[in-house]
Structure formats: C-alpha cells, structure tokens
Amino acid sequence: RAGGVFVAVDIGASSGRVILGRVGSDGPSLQIVHRFPNGAVEVDGTLRWDVRELFTQVLAGLRLASDSLEPGERIASVGVDTWAVDYGLLDNDGVLTSLPFSHRDIRSGSTVDGVHSLMPFERLYEITGLQFLPFNTVYQLAAETSLDHHRALLVPDLLCFWLTGRRASEATNASTTGLVDARTGDWAPEILTRLGLPADLFPPLIQPGQRLGLLLPEVARSTGLPTGTSIVAVGSHDTASAVVAVPATVEKFAYISSGTWSLVGVELDYPVLTPASRSANFTNERGIDGAIRYLRNVGGLWLLQECLRSWTADGLAPQLESLLTEAAARPADGPRIDADSSTFIPPGNMPDRIRDAIKATGAAAPTEPAGVVRCILDSLADAYARTVRQAVELSGAEVDVVHIVGGGSQNTLLCQLTADATGLPVVAGPVEATALGNIMVQARAAGLLGDSASLTDIRAAVARTADTTRYTPHGPGTAPKTSPIARNRRV
Ligand code: ADP
Ligand code: LRH
C-alpha cells in the first residue's frame, strides 16, 4: 500500500506541537516541526487561554510542516486536537467575544449547586455517564452571564473553524461537556432543555474520520499549503487520540495517558452507568468508533509542573532530571497525599499546598524539593493503581498490562512505581501518542490502513514503530487482573 503524509496539531495544557506523520506499510513515523509552550494566562484576575496566540502558533507550525516536506511529498490532510472541556463563545457574526476561560479558573465549582438544583447529579450521570469535575463544560456554561445570541465551540473546534470557516462539534470532545447522551453519543435534549441552554448552542456533531472542510484561502496563503488541503476530524479530545495510539498488542490492557492530567482507565464497548460507577466518579467518554473510554481523571503531573514553577520563581533553578534522580534515591515508604483532591486544581503555591496536605495526614512534610517530588510520584502511582483496580472492578474488564503514554511515560521513576503499585507490567511510550492517534485516524480516513481497519489494527501498526520501555513489578501490587464481575457483562 502507498504511504501518506499527515499533519497533527496537538495542543496540551502545558505545550503544543505540530507534527508531520508519515504513514507507510511498516507503520507511522513522526517528525516534530514546531513546539510551543502553553498555559493559562491571567486576564483581569481570571484564568484564560490565549487562543489567538495558539492559532498564530498553529499557522507557524503549518508553514514549517510545508517547508519540511521531502521532494515529491504532499500533505494529505491536517487534524487538530487539544485538551477538553473549555470553549469559546462567538457572537452572531462568528467573532470570538472573549478569551476562553481555563477550567482551572476559580469560577469552576461556583455553579455546581445551581446546576444540580435544576437537574440532580444522579440524573445527569444516568444520561451522560460523565464523572463529576467542577469544571465540566455544563458547569462553566452556567457561569456565563448571557448566552443569548451566542454560539459555543470547544477549543479544537474553534481552531478548526478559523482554519476552514466551518463549524462542527467533534464527537469525542463533545462527550466531555456533560451535554451528550452516553448511549446515543448525541447532544442530550433533556439536559439542554432543563438547564435552559439554547438547543443550537453547539453545532451538530462530526465523527472522527469525517472530512470537515478545506483550508481557507487566506490560511493556505499564509502557511504555504495548497488551497485543496483538507482538515479531517480526529479524536479532537487529546485523550481520545492518545487512547487510539496505545501500542497494545494484547486485548486486556489498561491505559494511563500521563501529561498535565493523568487519565486512567480501560476501553469498553458499552457505557457503565451504575450507581457504583457514579460513586467512584468514573467517566464514560467517547472514543473512536463508538468505543467508551471508561476512566477517571487523576491530578497528574500538574502537581510537579506547578512545584517547578514555584521553585523557579523562588530562584531555585530546579532541573527536572536531577530532581527525579534524587527522588528515586529516597525511601519507598515516604508520605502520600490524595493526588485526586480538587484542592490541587487551581494554580499557585503548590509546594506549600502539598506540604500542608502531608501534614494533614499526620506525617512530617519534607523540606527538600526532591522529597516533595517523591511524594507526588508515590501518590500518583498509588492513585494509578487504585484507579486501574476500580476500573476493573466496576466494568468487568480484565487487565494484563498497563500502558503509560504521553510526556509522563519518560518519567522512569513514575513508571517503575506504577508497576510496583499495580503489580502489573508497565509498557511506557510512545511520548507522542496523542499526535500518533490523531495521524492514524487521518491515515485510516485516507484509506491507507484498509477500509475495515479496527482500533486493534491501528494499535498493531503503532506498536510496530513505537519507542517503548517495559517495567516489571517488584512485588504483587494491588491491582487485580480480573474482576469479580464476569467479563463482557453489560452493566
Ligand atoms: P500535556 O499534553 O498535558 O501538555 P505532556 O504529555 O506533554 O502534557 O506531558 C508533560 C509532562 O511530561 C511534564 O509535566 C513532565 O512532567 C513530563 N516530562 C516531559 N519531559 C520529561 C522528561 N524528559 N522526563 C520526565 N518527565 C518528562
Ligand atoms: C487532558 C484533558 C483531560 C480533560 C482535561 C480538561 O489534556 O483533555 O482529558 O479532563 O484535559
């Protein structure tokens, strides 16, 4: 089969990249052509995403992608993914009214009681299967003063609108809003009506693999790409794309997409909407081909990023690599915190907040940065193990291996601690799983993988070229391989 060249625009909460993906018969290979930092910016005491600057970086990246082509190559299509949940509001003329809020802004949470008084969380969960996070889109929308004469677009859909002039809501990301029915995968009219939201606030859904449109002429001019270049919908929720590219070679696996957030779970072909699942706060987000990403958000490397930011501001010039080496040399029975606690969601003063959380457990708080780092990684590994165990117990899935993908897969200490805590082998990598998933969905849409290529086929292709490291557990750990619930029981 002939090969093809695709572009992934992949923007995480801490950094963005534009990547050329060449997909041949031996699997995909990536060339990172542009990297840029990302992070919420403070505007008048609120936390926002500077999406205009992000769009400028996307255009710069597309220009570099075009310049990086080998003779005879052409870009078949472009796909865009970013973090989930956050959205921009457009006025009647399609103009962005203000910079989108970050889900870490303090307004998140303030509207939860109001929303639940209109619709109890039990009913919301019954319909959407979405875990409770105080910043889910549904709660953020309730904080808007007026939605009259406004339309909303989730962040990747907004970038795609600016690239093509076409508005659509990509389905995997829409599933993180709290407004989509987990069974139908479509907008849930009952929720929109009961919360008084306009039925057409978001545009209709588009599925990953469908063609969204062509680059606008001015975008083509400024990037050097041909006007006929297509934008194809991918799993525009970064986690959905990451899960596509888990290089699993067996059926029974759990995944951890480890970046600013950690997303820990299993893939199912049915949603789990039981009261037990609701109490454990597991989510049923949509993946590619209607798969369910049954997972839970775990606080993630945000805790470490924020500590590094504080220590840098304090003039300590922390180096991640040496901190991790020092942390690895510390004893295994150090203090733990609840990495899932919502107290860690907002930015600022993280080392002190972690020390306070340690003291609240009755343990002595470390004074050295390396001690804090070790506490974060021990706590994350414990949370990963607990979450894998719960996913297995609640869904009936079985797990023989845990895959860690994303930036955190480079953290050898975290990977080994996760193997030890779960008692399961951990396969770490690829680092750029999200971009790979983005590219493979485009490659399949272009017919490169065969019309009937399944997620399993995509993963096998990724596994052929993926850079991975295997970690063996040093003990039995706590995650069972199988569940008391019979496999495949639809719960
Ligand atoms: P996001 O997509 O949310 O922006 P990434 O998947 O890029 O996040 O992961 C970012 C995280 O990866 C960082 O917070 C950092 O902890 C970790 N990371 C990046 N590079 C390394 C490295 N060389 N060694 C260990 N960890 C790393
Ligand atoms: C990870 C992620 C996660 C969401 C959060 C807002 O980047 O998309 O899946 O919960 O950001």
TrEMBL record:
Residues 254-446 form the Carbohydrate kinase FGGY C-terminal domain. Residues 466-491 are annotated as: Disordered. The keyword ATP-binding applies. SUPFAM superfamilies: Actin-like ATPase domain (SSF53067). InterPro entries: ATPase_NBD, FGGY_C, FGGY_N, Rhamnulokinase. Keywords: ATP-binding, Disulfide bond, Kinase, Nucleotide-binding, Rhamnose metabolism, Transferase. One of its GO terms (molecular function) is transferase activity. The keyword Cell membrane does not apply. Its EC number is 2.7.1.-. Gene3D superfamilies: 3.30.420.40. It comes from the Bacteria. PANTHER family: L-RHAMNULOKINASE, SUGAR KINASE. This is Rhamnulokinase family protein. It comes from Arthrobacter flavus.
